[in-house]
Amino acid sequence: MLNVQSIHKKYRKTTVLHDVSFSVKRGEIVGLVGENGAGKSTLLHLLATLEEPTSGNILFDDINYKNNLKNIRKQIGFVPQEIALWDEFTVEENMIFFEKLTWKHKSHDELRQLCVDMKLNKWKEKVHTLSGGMKRKLNLAISLIHDPTMLLLDEPTVGIDLKSKQEIATYLEELAYEHHKTIIYTSHDMDEIMHLCDYTYCLGSDPFYEEFLQARNQSIIVL
């Protein structure tokens, strides 16, 4: 379980996150919404250990982030909104390159199977020739090479076609419900949030998000 306890984050005099607390169980897909500037990406960066909170605690499976960053990082897969790939490498070469940077070895066949599982079949093609949807799938596949138990996704389907969105959603459901991954998912696509997530956290009290989801009988919790 992920347990966030009274997190505050300040940049000089600007408070981005104030007294944020919530929890997420294993096998759940949880949405994270809020208007631009509400702190969604900042919160994901804290959960991904890319930044430290000004105060408060974060625990994963009862392990405190503060003194166990090395072990915590082994459990986390992070997919940033920006596509982070080598354009002149093939899909295969990207997977092999990033596998060498992880702590967990994967065979060539296992790397390819990761891509096949999410219907990314362009193994020998260079990244710059791929569609936006294929690039997003590859970004996701790379984050899963080390078999993390928690997956943090920052707008992972922005700007891609509906078919690719549905294929990614189906794969994420499999990861959560069959492999018991903890998944936290930000998106501005409320239909996507509504159909994919078990429930949703909203950063800041925003009537739009509350009314939208409540009108569709979706659970939303204001942080």
Largest sheet properties: 6 strands, parallel
Give the topology string: H per helix, E per strand: EEEHEEHEHHHEHEHEHE
Give start-end ranges of low-pLDDT stretches: none
Radius of gyration: 17 Å
Structural class: alpha/beta
**What is the percent of helical residues?**
25-40%
User: What value does the average pLDDT take?
Assistant: 92
Strand order of the largest sheet: 6-7-8-3-9-10
Q: Measure the end-to-end span.
A: 18 Å
Count the beta strands. 10
β-strand amount: 15-25%
The number of helical elements comes to 8
Q: Shape, please?
A: globular
Write the layout of secondary structure elements.
Blueprint: E1 2-11, E2 14-24, E3 29-33, H1 40-47, E4 55-60, E5 63-64, H2 69-73, E6 76-79, H3 91-99, H4 108-117, H5 132-143, E7 150-154, H6 162-177, E8 182-186, H7 190-196, E9 199-202, H8 207-214, E10 220-222
Parallel strand pairs: 3-8, 3-9, 6-7, 7-8, 9-10
Antiparallel strand pairs: 1-2, 1-4, 4-5
Short account of what is shown:
The chain is an alpha/beta fold and 223 residues long. Helices cover 34% and strands 25% of the residues.
